[in-house]
User: Fold this.
Amino acid sequence: MKFVVNKEIITLGLRRGGIHGMLVWMCGMFDDSYMVHLNTRLRGFKDWYSFSEKKHRFVKSKISFLSGLKKKSLPIEFYINSVEQSTPKRFVDIDNKNYNRKKKKITKAVKVTKFSKSRKYVIFLRNPFNNLASLMQARENSRYPDSWFVKEIKLFRKNWIAYSKEVVGETNFLKKKIVLIYDRWVTDREYRKQKAEEIRLNFSDKNFGKMPHAGSSFDNFTFSNNAYNMDVCDRWVKYKDNKKFNKILFDAELLDLYKGIFGEVPYSL
Assistant:
């Protein structure tokens, strides 16, 4: 079995910025002919993934199991590569080269004979007050090494500013990009419909509210299939008196960009 990829989408966002929830939502609008790679730095390009509604997580796509069959070529409508923690500039300067090299490995591993020349970028941006609060909460709850979160929290301001500049047009590293503001996406069905149309998807909220793996860093991971019953737009409340939290966020450049995208700052010092 050989494969031809018709459309390629690269999604970029910060960790705990809602990227996986939005990715699951997108998967609900694809037919069976799609494949996902979570994070460019993950190893194992032989296996491609799709979202399992039954298991609430990404599992090996059935296309992975078809790759050894000797039949005609099969069109894959969408190939989605999810990138976390890179910035738009870093992706263009460094990660894109690595990604293109990995695409050659993909070609060999699952016999892709042709990748589409049409590539779209989807940028996910979350309110930094809620994004950082979720990141800090994840650090408290996580079984992963603390060093992962220390580095990300340290770089959070710099990385969020880089993304927001791309969103407002101060930079233009990524061509043909579509911007999804997480906070509007969560609360506004018409906004979700508009963005689905921009990505050229037949709108559906079938997977809206579903989360991969255990769910949120808040609420003891109990909302994996009903995520937006959680108060995801007020995560900052828990940390508003945290000195480190405020030191990162109350930066003149960050706040100026914030106001241009989200409006008034939720609280003052």
